[in-house]
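Structure tokens please, single chain.
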Amino acid sequence: MPTRIAIIPARSGSIRIKDKNIKKFHGKPLISYCLSEIKKSKMFCKIHVSTESKKIVNLAKKINIKTDFLRTKKLSQDKVGIQEVIEYVIKKYSGTGLKFDEIWLFYATNPFINTNIIKKAYSIYLKNKKKYSIMTVTKYNYPIEWSGFIKNRKLKHIFPKLVSKDSKKTYKALCDAGMLVIYQNSFLKNMDKKIEYIPCILPLGNSVDIDDREDFRLAEKLFKSK
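Here you go.
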């Protein structure tokens, strides 16, 4: 079996929802859904929760996931990118002589993950001979050409020339589902290299990447209905 690592970024700071990663979601800490399914898949020789929080470390420990090292304070700041976190984790393990054939990224804030999705993404990865990264995606509710934003309390269109376009002639736009990424094998050799993605498409309503309180309430309702 390939030496496969699952990295789950889970710092304690959260602007929109306080302690989002460990906030109770249908009676369990939000991050526990992700960790339990990764563990259940039995696909990973190492599961690393990248955090500076002792609370999150202890929570992972209850699911029999040991955190080998904490994230630094510098890497726990709000504007730190995911790639910086991944590089830090891989370098730390490399320093101990532990190297990996595959790097997987999981988001702690999507409770809809399950082992079937993990295996589906991996089958796509293998079909593409590990040359491309795999990202879980879902479609936008409405055509992206109709999208807008609020400025000075007024609705402005991002694409004003396309807002009247017939929906049948619009792009079937997709967005990151905020669930998982499998990185292409060349990523291990050069993490600065441009990443090319193949989508693993999830049905609309089978994924909510929780970012704010509205997302949290929507996820609770959808999760309960399933």
